[in-house]
Amino acid sequence: xxxxxxxxxxxxxxxxxxxxxxxxxxxxxEQVLQILRHAxxxxxxxxxxxxxxDRIARQLNTxxxxxxxxxxxxxxxxxxxxxxxxGAVVRGVSDEEVHEVLIPIRLxxxxxxxxxxxxxxxxxxxxxxxKEVWQMGEGARTGDLLRCVEADIRFHEFVLSRSGQxxxxxxxxxxxxxxxxxxxxxxxxxxxxxxxxxxxxxxAALQSGDREVxxxxxxxxxTVRTPGPVG
Length: 231
Description:
The protein is mostly helical. The chain has nine helices and three strands; from the N terminus they run H-E-H-H-E-E-H-H-H-H-H-H. It folds into two domains: 83 residues, Winged helix-like DNA-binding domain superfamily/Winged helix DNA-binding domain (Arc Repressor Mutant, subunit A, Orthogonal Bundle), CATH 1.10.10.10; 130 residues, Four Helix Bundle (Hemerythrin (Met), subunit A). Helix 1 packs across helix 3, helix 4 packs across helix 6 and helix 4 runs antiparallel to helix 9.
């Protein structure tokens, strides 16, 4: 952990957390997972930083068991990597991974899924997507990057869910945490108001019912939304 960082439990989880906080006592490990995931995604825990079980357990007033389970799940999500004799370490999202892995995977998944979704989308579905565009606009207006990022994720997940292709949702789910991290990283350098405008264009392309118009909008949206160089 970096010295002088505020305790992890002070992370602003309630309003814009990536996952809803569980309501039952079952899952202390789930609560720890949410806090650590949030801290990694927003950059409070940085690439290469060691995640020491004892220290995290003390900060979160819990035992090592929930911390160990949370770290295992974060490793499965690709946000943490474990090394012999060193333990768990934060795994950041590099420019190379964004350009060579995440963007190509997204293009493949979303070209396919958005086209398939054209067959099933209803006016009610378009209304749901419009709500997410509004959320992005409000996030930009208030400077709430997490609100923008979460609405962005939900927009794309909703279309994937309407494609009738569950295997694409499974692939998306396997990289979702890293996509969220790169969305947040990009958002730190981007004009948030442009985010709502881009998704409004995607929504209009879906509503057009024109496959070529939609494919052009999807490719333009995904390929231009890349992080700039890190200073």
